Amino acid sequence: MKLFRIRPHKPKSTGDDRPAQSLWRYIWLMSGRHQIVVCLIAISVAILGIVPLELQRRLVDDAISKQDMSLLTVLAVIYLAVVLVQSAAKFTLRIYEGWLSESAIRHNRRHLSRLYAEDRTGNGEGENGRAVSIIGSEIEKLGGFVGDGLSQPVVNAGMLIFGIGYMVSVEPIIGLIGILALIPQIALVPVIQKQINRLIEKRVEKMREVSDELSELHPGEDDDHKELLDPIHRGISYLYNNRMWFFILKFGMKTLINLLNALAPLCVLVVGGYLAIKGETSVGIIVAFISGFDRMSSPMRELLSYYRMAAQAAVQHRMIAKWMN
Questions:
Q1: Angle at which helices 69-118 and 34-58 pack, to 10 degrees?
Q2: 32 three-state secondary structure
Q3: CA triplet 30, 33, 35: central angle to 5 degrees?
Q4: Which residues does 294 contact at the CB level (< 8 Å), separation at least 6?
Q5: Three-point CA angle 203, 209, 212, nearest 5°
Q6: Tell me, what DSSP letter sits at residue 123?
Q7: How does it sit in the membrane (predicted)?
Q8: Cα 29 from Cα 17, distance rounded (Å)
Q9: Tell me: domain 23-324, CATH 3.40.50.300, correct?
Q10: Most confident of 68-77, 132-141, 294-303
Q11: What integer is the mean pLDDT of 58-71?
């Protein structure tokens, strides 16, 4: 299949080769006003994600309960239209984010390659491995954050805010009880993430050291391979141990999040079921709320994942900026 060429976004040149002072300044320099457009699309995705909750409630309480076939058909068509429009908006958002990210990565690789080439004589052989690591894999992680650095928190926080607002306005008691199950995530995740960030920073530093040591090897020329390989093997062992603890913390945090997310629908069923039995709420509201908390668990996970990615990108930006200076 022949692929047509997609033109990359070209950041405006500032004439200053120094790194951006912060991660957020870097994102703005790489994408500029495109971030505003991306965020507007993200807001529309968030709003469209909550509309089906009210449609579900009306389908159960107004159409199905009253056996109104015409209303059922109308609401079903509206529901389908909303889902299709949201899917199209999501697709547009993802492509836009990907375009900005890949454009930033392309620009950064060209820029850093030029800076390294111009200063090549002063770096020495030991810097070769580090430069390859930075221009190859590290800048990809940093540049990849440009596209969704602002839009992802907007769309996910928007879905949480609109969803919580809708549920509290419709049935305050059920909404507030369900929300209580989400609060521990906000308190616990930053504590665990700090430990993960430390592991990431140490891993990047050690990976650079191993890359530098590997670049100093001369296959077939060095007599004492063991002496040269010992520090490399120690570094590899450290990377293994670092990665295992990273997995323990990362998946432990995910398990905790999934457990807490599962408690919210249970709260809705118990409290909502009690109120429904007493005639103080409707089945349609319970159905909409269970669906709502299910929808909210995804943006909650995405926000926590975003928090982790932002912290990692900040570490990456700081270390690359240090290398550039």
A1: 160
A2: coil
A3: 75
A4: 265
A5: 140
A6: T
A7: Multi-pass membrane protein
A8: 12
A9: no
A10: 68-77
A11: 88
pLDDT of residue 82: 95
CA distances from 19 to 33, 55, 88, 211, 320 (A): 20, 49, 36, 23, 8
The overall average pLDDT reported for the chain is: 82
3-class DSSP assignment, residue 224:
coil
Q: Is residue 97 scored above 90 in pLDDT? A: yes
Tell me: the pLDDT tens digits for 3-50? 567 888 888 766 666 778 888 889 999 998 999 999 999 999 999 988
How far is residue 116's CA from residue 255's CA, in Å, rounded to a whole number? 43
Q: Which two tokens stand for residue 248?
A: 């323990």
Can you say whether the dihedral through the CA atoms of 231, 202, 146, 13 is positive or negative? Answer: negative
For residue range 180-229, list pLDDT tens digits in order: 777 777 777 778 878 888 888 888 888 878 877 777 766 655 555 667 77
Q: What is the pLDDT of residue 121?
A: 35
Chain centroid offset of residue 218 CA? 41
Query: Is 145 in contact with 108 (CB distance < 8 Å)?
Result: no
Report the Cα 105 to chain-centroid distance in Å. Answer: 17
Burial status of residue 57 (CB atoms within 10 A of its CB: 0-12, 13-18, 19 or more): buried
42, 89, 103, 147, 151 from 39: Cα distances, Å: 5, 12, 18, 10, 5
Pick from 149, 176, 199, 142: nearest CA to 323: 142
pTM: 0.75
What is the model's pLDDT at position 93? 95
Q: How far apart are CA 264 and CA 126, in angstroms?
A: 54
Cα–Cα nearest to 93, from 133, 162, 34, 13: 34
End-to-end CA distance of the chain: 43
Lookup result for tokens 């971030």:
35
Tokens representing 323? Answer: 């290398």
Q: Rounded CA gap, 27 and 141, in Å?
A: 13
